[in-house]
Design brief:
Layout (H helix, E strand, L loop, with lengths): L1 H43 L15 E7 L4 E7 L3 H4 L4 E2 L11 E5 L17 E6 L4 E13 L13 E8 L10 E9 L1
Parallel strand pairs: 2-3, 4-7
Antiparallel strand pairs: 1-2, 1-5, 3-4, 5-6, 6-8, 7-8
Length: 187
């Protein structure tokens, strides 16, 4: 009987700790979004490289909007795992959001880019640049590719927006060898 009480008590404590950790992560993510919005507002007013918090090694470079889904995300400079914990990241070496070319943005499938499962061919995606320019894109393709498919990063002579996340969306383990890709062209 005593062993059973200890076991139940231990499981209850472990459950509370996991719940608390999950709530802490959620609260931290919400605070990060507020700080990102503030940094974005400063960026739109002409400041360069505005860090959302003092120790950040990234800054906002665009706002990505999905009008039909009523979602909007601040895009960060660089697509490192550390950056993707807070928002979509621009993949280095691809066209910057304000440039003509293939602008590639990546995010986690279970946070910001969970929205991609709701995006259809023909949907509009809006990208706002640091200078305040709005570029409208129309979704032309959705597909699943292997993680080693680097053709997604190829340059283009036209404005192309390529959004990449892990696949499948409901995978139990993160990562995997498949990527879900949405490709949109400027209209």
């Amino acid at each position: 009987m005593k062993k059973r009480l200890v076991l139940v008590g231990s499981l209850a404590i472990a459950g509370l700790m996991l719940f608390g950790n999950g709530m802490w992560m959620y609260a931290k993510a919400q605070l990060a979004q507020v700080l990102l919005e503030r940094a974005w507002a400063r960026t739109l007013h002409g400041e360069q490289g505005v860090k959302p918090w003092r120790w950040a090694d990234t800054w906002p470079i665009a706002r990505l909007q999905f009008p039909r889904q009523r979602r909007s995300y601040i895009v960060l400079a660089g697509a490192s795992g550390r950056n993707l914990a807070f928002g979509p990241g621009h993949v280095d070496g691809t066209a910057a959001p304000e440039q003509i070319g293939n602008c590639v943005i990546s995010a986690h499938r279970d946070t910001q880019f969970a929205v991609l499962r709701e995006v259809n061919i023909g949907d509009e995606i809006v990208l706002q640049t640091r200078g305040g320019t709005t570029i409208r894109y129309r979704v032309r393709d959705r597909r699943v590719v292997r993680d080693r498919d680097t053709s997604l990063l190829e340059a283009s002579s036209h404005r192309v927006l390529t959004l990449i996340t892990c696949y499948p969306f409901d995978a139990i383990r993160p990562g995997g060898h498949l990527r879900y890709v949405v490709v949109a062209t400027a209209v």
